[in-house]
Specification:
Blueprint: H1 2-16, E1 19-22, H2 28-39, E2 56-64, E3 74-76, E4 81-82, E5 90-99, E6 104-110, E7 119-135, E8 139-154, H3 160-163, E9 182-185, E10 188-197, E11 204-224, E12 229-250, E13 255-264, E14 280-290
Parallel strand pairs: 1-12
Antiparallel strand pairs: 2-5, 2-14, 3-4, 5-6, 6-7, 7-8, 8-9, 8-10, 9-11, 10-11, 11-12, 12-13, 13-14
Length: about 290
């Protein structure tokens, strides 16, 4: 009886230890974290337009998250184990811009904590500070510095679909008995160079940007299996470069429609080809209201 109790306690101790691992940015695990970070990038929804101190612009936007195929979602154990990365097909946030000191624009953004398909953002908010650097009859050029903090909780390791499969079958090879509570840190910071050609048609305002983002991402895996509880911590670091093309269309003096598309090249080294596009490419739709 004592030996049985001792073995049980040792098993609980081992299961409770957090295994930490730092992976390469281009590894399957690192790519998965980079892909999720690209989906949440704190990018601009407009060119930089100077505001008077205290002037406020309120906006909301929704962006798409491309669906990955089955082979692309094999990112566990160096690209051998399937993880459910196809959660919400969209990402949304609200923004508030305000004219600030020294002809800068201060920006605050927040993503609502709404659960979609087992994924829920928490405390996901961003700050940005932008300033017009150059402007003439042909060109508007500005710089935007941004930061994002927060995380998301999702059942990636053991999704509801996996848990409903028989234990140790191809659909549930790890023996998941409960949906996991995996946590991904989406924090990042960077800068965005934004250019707008000045057009004669004031209703249509096209703009373009080049963004460099430093990503220091991590995932905490928390999965209850039949024989043990898997707890692990995986982290990675890297740089993302993003190209954005946008169009602002004035609906009225107060309302502006924001359209955009962003492309983030991503590389991944897999054990076998997965097909599909490993880079991140989305489309964005937003609406802004000028309160001044």
């Amino acid at each position: 009886m004592k030996n049985l109790l001792f073995t049980f306690l040792i098993s609980l101790f081992v299961a409770s230890q957090v295994q930490s691992e730092e992976v390469e940015f281009e590894s399957p695990e690192g790519w998965g974290m980079a892909y999720m970070s690209a989906a949440s990038l704190n990018l601009s929804n407009s060119y930089i337009e100077p505001l008077e101190f205290g002037d406020i612009v309120i906006s909301a936007e929704i962006s798409t998250i491309p669906k990955l195929n089955l082979e692309q979602q094999k990112i566990g154990f160096g690209g051998l184990k399937y993880e459910d990365l196809n959660k919400s097909p969209i990402f949304g946030r609200g923004k508030l811009k305000m004219g600030f000191y020294w002809d800068t624009v201060f920006e605050f953004s927040l993503t609502p904590s709404v659960e979609i398909k087992g994924a829920k953002p928490k405390d996901l908010y961003g700050f940005a500070l932008s300033k017009e650097l150059f402007e003439n009859n042909n060109l508007n050029l500005g710089l935007r510095i941004f930061n994002l903090s927060g995380y998301a909780v999702a059942d990636v390791t053991c999704s509801a679909e996996v848990v409903n499969q028989p234990l140790y079958t191809p659909g549930n090879p790890s023996g998941c008995i409960e949906t996991s509570k995996d946590k991904i840190d989406l924090g990042h910071h960077g800068f965005e160079l934004i250019m707008k050609p000045n057009m004669k048609n004031e209703k249509f305002e096209p703009w373009f940007s080049l963004t460099t983002t430093k990503v220091d991402s991590s995932v905490r895996i928390d999965a209850q299996l039949e024989l043990t509880r898997e707890i692990a911590f995986v982290e990675t670091k890297g740089t993302l470069n993003t190209f954005t093309a946008g169009l602002n269309y004035s609906l009225s003096e107060k309302w502006v429609l924001n359209l955009g598309t962003s492309y983030t090249p991503l590389d991944v080294v897999r054990p076998a080809p997965a097909g599909g596009d490993d880079s991140f490419w989305n489309f964005r739709l937003g609406l802004s209201f000028n309160t001044y």
